[in-house]
Design a protein that fits this description.
This protein is mainly β. The protein folds into 3 domains: about 270 residues, Sandwich (Immunoglobulin-like); about 170 residues, C8orf32 fold, CATH 3.10.620.30; about 90 residues, no CATH class. It has an 8-stranded mixed β-sheet with strand order 6-5-9-3-2-11-14-13, with no helix packed on it. It is flat and about 80 Å long. This is DUF3857 domain-containing protein. Keywords: Signal.
Length: about 575
Amino acid sequence: MTTLPSLYLGCVISLLPLFCWAQTTTPTPNVKFGQVTEADFALKPVPNDTTAEAVVLYESADSRFEFRNNRIQLITSFFSRIRINKKSGYDQATVDIPLRGKSTDADYAMSLEGVTYTLQNGQVTKQKMDKAAIRIENVADGYRIQKFTLPGVQEGCIIEYRYVLNMPNVYTPPSWRFQQSIPVVWSDYKVTIPNFFYHKVILTGYLPLTVYQSRTVSSQMSIPGIPDVNATESHYAMANAPAFRNEPYITTAGDYVSKIEFELARVDVPGQLTENYSLNWPDIDQTLLRRESFGGQYKKAPYFRDVATAIKAKYPATDTLGRAVAAYEHVRSTMTWNEKTSMDSDRLKKVLELKKGDVADLNFMLIGLLRDLDIDANPLILSTRDHGRINETYGLLRKFNYVVAHLVVGGKDMMLDATDRFVKPGMLPERALNSTGRLIMPNDQSRFVSLTPTERDVEAKSASFTLSDEGELTGELTHSYAGYAAVDARSSYVLRGETLFVEDVKRKKPSWQIEKAEFTNATNVNLPLSVKYALKIPEAAQVAGDRIYLNPLLTEGSTENPFK
């Protein structure tokens, strides 16, 4: 058995097929579909999580490659058994299977079965899922979701389901999460890869594997004109993985849960094909610079030449910051973000007509305008917080999903994102604050850039009240917002209006009787936003004889520790 240390792991297990068998003393549970016993209803994870709304008793996947219909297909068999403990866990009985592609190249799931088991007077009863419960929904161009819901779900029941997923023309096994939002008693993943596919195997998370084995087997995949090759069969398993629960201020669960991912590094088919897919960072830099939808866009973006002429007339060439801010304000005030992330654009003329586009559209326009102003601006790619962190150790282009403008002012890095009109120049939207980004530049000058926030999230409150003999407070309270707090507050004020802004405050502070609200710097992103309330707070203090008891924090104290 190979036991990995109990700390956060972000390592590449292998680059090449493995030709060894790692021993393990931990037996794999012999769990089969349809064989649920009374003991399964009492099975508990170690340690037992009494708050869990459901528990994964067993789950497995087995991926292998086959040659069917004159093409390679990835075939993965899934099996899951879950006990529902509470009504809040009923959503575990609804399953989504993502499918991609169209017609003959489309993914498809087959052999789908589902059963719900209940324990009644010591007897296990079962209810099979009807085929009519299976449906397919189109969610986007080329993407569908196959959905089903297990029948007869109730507290204490066990559900299980299995299916086989066929994915044509896929050469990389799916990633696998050993840890979920509910406890997992046993999670098992087997993958068999022909030895002409070479993958990086990336294990991340804080929990050690219980089983890690690999051995050489027959690939059992016959391709006309290609000599038969062996395959590497790998087995990964984890026992008693605790539930991972989202907490405030983290990025995305995928950055923390224990999981395994595969990245195609090389294809080496004897006598047929040898192609390297493993990119280092210089490879990624050059790929993007040569890509017409990336480097080809901001290098030839004469869409704001008249604007550039006007800005040059107002700001001298020595005032880089003045020119940059003027360009930034122009793009974000004349264009609207469609709330889509992207790193490519091939329709800037159309976007200019519509005055609306995705993040790449707007920021390539901004980079082009900055360059027209003789500013050395370049794209900086990053991964948004909900997309996961990047790892500087290995180059994976698919880990990025966002691009902003970068320039140097006064010897310091400055990032500009034209998608958000409520952040001030030099700030990135909160969604883009995710460790580091990659600055893409020619002549081997690309580098990583820290995305450490230049501003904080700051709120301050000050008040002047008069306390009556009856314990009522009357006076003024000023609430100031700066940094990222100002972004949120200003966005709410501008997009929803003053009336709804104040109504929200009244709902959150039911004891406040607000008579008037006065806003200062409501639309000036460069200054803190402040709101002065004229208000009364009846019964703010307790009167007991000749004494008055007053909580000095009034309604503003924290009621919960966000870092518990």
